[in-house]
Each structure stands twice: as structure tokens, then as C-alpha cells.
């Protein structure tokens, strides 16, 4: 899941968190000019650190010098998408 950090009294300089609800591991990210970078790792449910939380449906990757994302590394089983994706 992914969501904006709610700053609940914890002094963290993160803009949003990405995490898993089963393993209760959350990674805080700071928005950068070129790329977002991780700033913290928490043993906490992402739903307690961020609001609203949204389910991650797909994760795509590419090499740094490539223009487009070409490889889908994760996709939820329920997701119905066209055979050709951009």
C-alpha cells in the first residue's frame, strides 16, 4: 500500500510511505527533484503512518537511461488490463 505521511507526532522528514500490511514493514520516501529517495524504514503498519492509503496494483521497472517502463515486475491477480500496455 502507499499513502501520504500523516505526521502523527513522529519527527520524520518523509512525504509518503510504502509498505506491506502483512509483514508490517514501511519505507518512508522524500520527494526529490529528479527521483524520490528513501529516508526511513519502520516496523509499522503503513495504515498507521499514512492516510489515505491506496493499494499498489502494478510495479514497473526500467533502466535509468531508458525512456519508457518496459518490464512489469508485480501485478495483482484481479487486475484486468489490455494485452498491450504503455
Give me a quick take on this structure.
With 86 residues, this protein is mainly beta.
Descriptive account of the structure:
The chain has one helix at residues 46-49; strands at residues 2-5, 16-20, 25-30, 37-42, 50-54, 58-61, 71-75. The strands form two sheets. It has a five-stranded antiparallel sheet. The protein is mainly β. The model has no long low-confidence stretch (mean pLDDT 82).
Radius of gyration: 15 Å
Oligomerization:
single chain
Structural class: mainly beta
Binned strand content:
35-45%
Which spans of ≥5 residues are poorly predicted at pLDDT below 50? none
The largest beta-sheet arranges its strands as 4-3-2-1-5
List keywords for this structure.
about 90 residues; mainly beta; 5-stranded antiparallel beta sheet; 1 helix; 7 strands; about 40% strand
What's the SSE blueprint?
Layout lengths: L1 E4 L10 E5 L4 E6 L6 E6 L3 H4 E5 L3 E4 L9 E5 L11
Antiparallel strand pairs: 1-2, 1-5, 2-3, 3-4, 6-7
